C-alpha cells in the first residue's frame, strides 16, 4: 500500500500498477489497528515474556498470573459456544 501511495516519489516512470479501493484501505487500517494493539501488549509485557512465548524461570509465575487474570476477564464477557471454546483453549492459564 505504501508503494502505491508513494509511487511518484520512488522515481519510477508511469502509473502504479496496483490500486486499492476505499474499502480495501479501510479494512487494512482496521486490521492494522488490531495488530498494533497486540504488538503494544507484547511490548508492555516483554519483561515477563517474549513474543515467541519464551520466558525466564524467574518470571514464569508472574506471567501465568497475568494470563490467568486476562483469561478470567475474557470469560466474563463471553457466552455460549465461544465461551466454552475459549475456556478449553486457555485452560493452560487456569489457576
What do you see in this structure?
With 95 residues, the protein is mainly α. It folds into 2 domains: 1-44; 55-95. The protein has helices spanning 2-5, 22-44, 60-76, 80-89. The radius of gyration is 20 Å and the shape is elongated.
Give a quick summary of the entry:
With 95 residues, the protein is mostly helical.
Note the topology.
Elements: H1 2-5, H2 22-44, H3 60-76, H4 80-89
Helix-and-strand structural type: mainly alpha
What is the makeup of the main sheet? none
Number of helices: 4
| Average pLDDT | 92
Order of helices and strands: HHHH
What features would you highlight for this structure?
mainly alpha; 0% strand; 95 residues; elongated; single chain
Amino acid at each position: 500500500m505504501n508503494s502505491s501511495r508513494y509511487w511518484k516519489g520512488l522515481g519510477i516512470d508511469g502509473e502504479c500498477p496496483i490500486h486499492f479501493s476505499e474499502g480495501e484501505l479501510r479494512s487494512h487500517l482496521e486490521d492494522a489497528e488490531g495488530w498494533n494493539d497486540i504488538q503494544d501488549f507484547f511490548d508492555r509485557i516483554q519483561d515477563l515474556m517474549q513474543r515467541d512465548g519464551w520466558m525466564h524461570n524467574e518470571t514464569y509465575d508472574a506471567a501465568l498470573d497475568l494470563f490467568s487474570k486476562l483469561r478470567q476477564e475474557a470469560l466474563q464477557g463471553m457466552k455460549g459456544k465461544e465461551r466454552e471454546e475459549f475456556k478449553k483453549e486457555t485452560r493452560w492459564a487456569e489457576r
